[in-house]
Amino acid sequence: MATDAMAPVATANVPKAKSELMQQRVRAARLFLIPMLVALAIVAGWPLLRSIYFSFTDATLNNLYGAEWIGFGNYLRWTVLESGTVRYRGVLADPDWWNAVWNTVRFAFWSVLWETVLGMIVALVLNAEFKGRGIVRAAILIPWAIPTIVSARMWSWMLNDQFGIINDLGMKLGLLAAPVAWTASADTAMTAVLIVDIWKTTPFMALLILAGLQMIPRDIYEAAAIDGVHPIKQFFRITLPLVRPALMVAIIFRVLDALRIFDLIYVLTPNSSATKTMSVLAQENLFQFNNFAEGSTQSTLLFLMIAIFTVLYIWLGRVNFDGGDR
Amino acid sequence: MTLNKLLVAMMASVTLVGAAQAADLSIVSGDTGNGLAFLRSQLDKFEQQTGNKVTVVPMPSSTTDQFGQYRLWLAAGNADIDVYQTDVIWAPQLAEHFTDLTEAMKDVVGNHFPSIIESQTVDGKLVAMPAFTDAPALYYRKDLLEKYGKSVPTTWTELEATAKEIMDAERGAGASELWGFVFQGNAYEGLTCDALEWVVSNGGGQIIEADGTISINNEQAAAAIDRAAGWVGTIAPDGVLAYMEEESRGVWQLGNAVFMRNWPYAYALSNGDDSAVKGKFDVAPLPAGDGEGARSAATLGGWNMAVSKYSPDQDAAIELVKFLASEEVQKERAINQSNLPTIPALYEDKDVLAASPFMANWKAIFEQAVPRPSAPTKTNYNEVSSLFWSAVHDTLSGNGTAAENLEVLEADLNDLKGDAW
After folding, report:
1. How much is the average pLDDT of B383-402?
2. Residue limits of the ABC transmembrane type-1 domain (chain A) (predicted)?
């Protein structure tokens, strides 16, 4: 995928009248690309094709190599009962799957929205000149540096209703009347997961936006200040349009990450149907239940959704990974 | 260059010779703290006796996590792990990846409870040797029951009333964090165990009977689960919906619960020096329901040792399993870890009873034990269990009544079953 998207960019720079030297360069470039392509084919391409293949079979974990081809049965199949009613089966007819899709989309939307807004604020603050900026920049990255499993486990204790510090603080400050069982109740489970994810990934967003902010030339602001443009207007008319390319790239990274969210939910609320996402459901079918083929089908559908979303986003959002608008 | 080659050859030969003499074994363990230290101490003995080296590979304490990982390793034919510790319900699901121990254990199987050996035998193949068995009990606070002149509840109705009365009175006296009853309400295998007890104790059947009939959708089962839903937020904290064994033990051991449903491992820990309830508690069989056929019921648990078919050191691994399942280790385990032995003779052993007097009663509890439906449902057990605990968790969380959720559960189980399990 990634290489296909990059290829036209590389060839677009080749002048029409190809000189001998140019052709030689292209040949050399291809040669240099081969190791990377081979590595990608082994570590990404092959497993992907295997997953897709398994989704068309009746494989189980105890019988991977003797799996038989059954066509689209794992996706959708139907039987007509004697009474004439049609019963649909398969992942596409499974309410659990659609619940997981909805959970994933909901999670991705809210987490990325909050991370973008908060990341932007943090980046703007860090972009300003102040004493100790280097230390603050490093410190703010700490949540991002902690492995997700560790931070999820840490938060699951902090959110515990009996010995969790969040409830303790909330009670002492008078914000909570009674301890809240954050991860247990279906109403708060998604909020709890969102809080932890936003805490963890805002720094990443801030870092990417900060890199974009630092590309903006200072003299534009000086000119605007001399013309007496209000800072808020400066932000919407200068900062936002100029940081947009970096922002778009940051958002797509985060959305792709959020759509395949697994670790955080697996640790915090593994079996709650209020937070079960596509990846969690696929893992459950693949390894916990005896449904390897069904899990492969779900993984394949997840892959397709992410692929379609990425293509649409790049196309509609006119994102250019070289930086700058197309 | 030649010198290097020589060195490499020498080193290789040293490792080869080493491997032939003493095996390097790996055993998985999802245990923590004391349990892990105990296992290590036994392994040290084994190392001394045999000269083999055993490495413990730590695993997450959640059995669901362990199972997923083991299944993956075994499906891939991983040769790194020689000995697996398996939950009592895993035998039918993982049987084909384990070595048949029938021949190697034929001298010792007769010492164990026949029902446990049977649970680990799949199609005539002994898949794993029992290391200890497990049956939960009702932990109660002696001091609080005495203070309020209450007897140990024998029915769930009594438990509710006693828990409520003591909780209200103690809270009035300033113990604001005290709860009546804690159990395992998180949506995981543990909830299947808890809920199976509620249902069986109320005469509601065993979810799926031994012949494969789906029996869960009945009024007594629904009544039992509805009653449990009534505990959440009244005598049990709302957070119980996220509790596993360790969270409930946490609340209990801080002295914040009148009753707890838990496995025997909590007994030794609750009597530890850092425990707020040390010497203030005792255990009894779980209460019975009040429908027709109501009785006390305890879900059968327990852990077993299995040898991976893919282990390169079969003999040494079998030796290790035999050692860990032996009377000697089980006795130590009963004394140090308060784990129930699978050898009936140990329930009359003086040293065991001196260290864990409660074990004399446990033989009775163990005889009331109910197996989870892992044998009739075969490779589908995990999915069955997940459907069951989800239906129960939904009911406990207030998403629908037990009757509604059990009706859907029955339909789902029928779909999963198809023509036969």
Report:
1. 92
2. 101-313
Give the pLDDT of residue B2. Answer: 53
* For range B254-270, the mean pLDDT: 92
Average of per-residue pLDDT across B342-355 = 90
- B363-380: b or e for each residue (b if 16 or more CB lie within 10 Å)? eebbebbbbbbbbbbbbb
Length of chain B counted residue by residue: 421
Report the candidate in A177, A205, A181, A176 with the shortest Cα–Cα distance to residue A192.
Answer: A181
CB contact under 8 A, A61 and B75: yes
Asked if B413 contacts B221 with a C-beta cutoff of 8 angstroms, the reply is no
Q: Which of A88, A91, A162 is the best substitution to test chain B (most B C-beta atoms within 10 A)?
A: A162
Q: Which of B271, B273, B295 is nearest to B282 (CA)?
A: B271
Q: Give the single-character DSSP code of B282.
A: E
Kindly identify which residue of chain A lies nearest to residue B380, measuring between CA atoms: A290
Is there a contact between A163 and B397 if contact means CB atoms under 8 Å apart?
no
- Asked if residues A114 and A122 have their Cβ atoms less than 8 Å apart, the reply is no
CB contact under 8 A, A60 and B186: no
pLDDT in tens, B226-237: 999 999 999 999
**B96 CA to chain A: closest CA distance, Å?**
8
Query: Could you give the CA distance from residue A151 to residue A88 in angstroms, rounded to a whole number?
Result: 41
CB-CB under 8 Å, A290 with B379: yes
SS (H, E, C) A269-300: CCCCCCCCCHHHHHHHHHHHCCCHHHHHHHHH
A/B interface, count of CB pairs below 8 Å: 88
In chain B, domain spans: 2-134+301-370, 137-299+373-417
Q: Which CATH number fits domain B137-299+373-417: 3.40.190.10, 3.40.50.11540, 3.40.50.2300, 3.40.50.10490?
A: 3.40.190.10
Say whether residue B385 is in contact with chain A using an 8 A CB cutoff: no
Q: Are the C-beta atoms of residues A234 and A127 closer than 8 Å to each other? A: no
pTM value? 0.81
- For each of the domains in chain A, give its residue range(s) and CATH number, in order of start: 2-54 (no CATH), 96-316 (1.10.3720.10)
Dump pLDDT digits (tens) for B232-258. Answer: 999 999 889 888 888 899 999 999 999
Architecture of the CATH domain B2-134+301-370: 3-Layer(aba) Sandwich (3.40)
User: Which of chain A's residues have a Cβ under 8 Å away from the Cβ of B243?
Assistant: 184
Look up the ipTM and state it.
Answer: 0.76
User: Which chain A residues are Cβ-neighbours of B394 within 8 angstroms?
Assistant: 273
More confident residue, A68 or B358: A68
Whether residue A75 contacts residue A314, with contact meaning beta carbons closer than 8 Å, is answered with: no
Least confident residue range of A99-108, A172-181, B33-42, B211-220 = A172-181
B322 Cβ neighbours under 8 A, 6+ residues apart = B104, B105, B108, B129
The number of beta carbons lying within 10 Å of the beta carbon of residue A321 is 13
